[in-house]
Amino acid sequence: MFGLTFEKLLLIGIIAVFLLGPEKLPHYAAQLGRLVRQLRDMANGAKDRMKDEMGPEFDDVDWKKLDPRQYDPRRIIREALIEDEPVKGQSAVVGRTGPDPDGAYSQRKRAREGALTGPAPFDSEAT
């Protein structure tokens, strides 16, 4: 729970006792308890409302499969970029290494060496 250990919670409690004083601490603790109860009731109400709206399909949903903590963005991107079949009319990009030989950097480098004259280089991969 947010990386809070018993020692950290104890330290927060001691600091609260010193800052609030023993007179106001029970009042604020009661307010915190009411807030936690209200949040729990709101969450249970949302769950009950979802059950009512989804009907019997609610029990069929695999909630662990929909847990956002299980998603690895690197895996999702890797799977999206590596396609088994290329889209019709397009060729698949297969493990290209290194920069584009006709990219702007290569064109500028050749221009400095005197091998390229003419219009300014254009990089087709630039945004």
From TrEMBL:
One GO-annotated biological process of the protein: protein transport
Bilayer topology annotation: Single-pass membrane protein
Region named Disordered: 88-127
GO cellular component, one term: membrane
Primary site of residence: membrane
Listed InterPro entries: TatA/B/E
Transmembrane segments: none
Localization per Swiss-Prot or TrEMBL: Membrane
Keywords for this protein: Membrane, Protein transport, Translocation, Transmembrane, Transmembrane helix, Transport
Keyword check for Lipid biosynthesis: no
One Pfam family it belongs to: TatA_B_E
UniProt protein name: Sec-independent protein translocase TatB
